[in-house]
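Suppose a colleague, Dr. K., hands you the sequence of a protein chain of 248 amino acids and asks what its three-dimensional shape might be. Before reaching for any lab equipment, you can write down a predicted structure in token form. Begin with the sequence itself:
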Amino acid sequence: MAVLKEAHFLRGKMVQGISSQAPGGKAFVPLSPLTLALRKAMGFGGSKALIRTGALRAAITAIRVPGASPRAFVGILRQAKGKSSGGGGGGGAKGGASRKGSGVGNVFKDKGGRWRDSTGRFLRKGQRPGDKPAGGSGKGGGKGGGGSAPPLVNIAIIHEQGASVPITDKMRRFLWAKLRQSGAKPPAAGAGGGAKKGGLGVIVIPPRPFIAPVVETYAKPADVKRRFYLNVGNAMNGDFGRMTGVRM
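The predicted structure, expressed as tokens, is then:
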């Protein structure tokens, strides 16, 4: 009970951090005017990062890990799904473009040099740039990033670490059309989302971590130990439960 209560404490701080836009007291980088214009054009309101739909924030969970030792998990479960495909819960990327025959969304390299699509999923052989299509048929390799809701754990990784997503011509046409619908002026070449990098425009998603700052601020070993023993004492409902500031 004490371990799970500690897990729920940290979960609450992560949820509060997204709501306040400053997990662990470290403020998020504000959304760019371009992202806000696109959000409006896509029919979403608000100006806060990571809560375009609220799915990512709602998916943060604290559960007991089965086993003999009392352990708990805090974060986004792998099976958690977003409400829609594409850009996820509040960053700058909007899906829609895909590589022919790959069955995946717009691709990019993460900080570890691994290829992912726009939903954060790792690419398999035959899906990465320069690979021959798997099976050699040229047909789609699965449902991919454009059809189903993306795993929220992948969206969380993108926002926790940041990413640069290249923009294909098809994706650019979609984005520019949405901007014009909203009355916003698409950026000129060499500025913002239209900046050139290796011959391609890119969408830059700056890091907006909501897990690491909370762990760093609230999960210091001494603080965790103090809360743990207080939780044990409170559960025992006796004199031990009323002790505070005790050196254990």
